[in-house]
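May I ask you for just one protein sequence along with its backbone structure tokens in two labelled lines?

_____
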Amino acid sequence: MSLVTLPEGDWIRGISIRQPYAACILAGAKTIENRPGRWRTGWVLLHTSKTIDQPALRNLLIGRTIRGRELVRGAVVDIARITDCHQDPEGAPICSEWAHPGAWHLVLDDVQELPLPVPARGQAVPWKPTGQLLARVFQQLPAFRP
């Protein structure tokens, strides 16, 4: 797929997620990503931060989910679509076992893992990927259509 077949404009962003949480998303178990602020819906490149949340590795839910998975760092590892961004009402049950109370919950769908991670720099806030990065990502996903 060449870049000329991708939509023009501001249609995709990058999101950086620490390991082992990114591996849980790739495994298909974690469909909620917690953020301190609201995000817009739409397509995102899922980028793994260079740091690993070491205490999270002792969490049984995470340990079962990532068993046997490599914890790739500092690379784009998949694309996904944010289909909703919400906060659970105060006093209501959380929407997922992965959700943190009080956080904004990004609902991730259509997760498509890349065959090969693409090294890249990310940011804590939504970031705009370069055309070169998009070309390297979508070269691996020839059937992708936004």
Q: What stands out?
A: The mean pLDDT is 92. The beta strands are 12-19, 32-35, 42-52, 75-86, 104-119. The longest strand covers residues 104-119. Residues 70 and 123 are 22 Å apart (CA to CA).
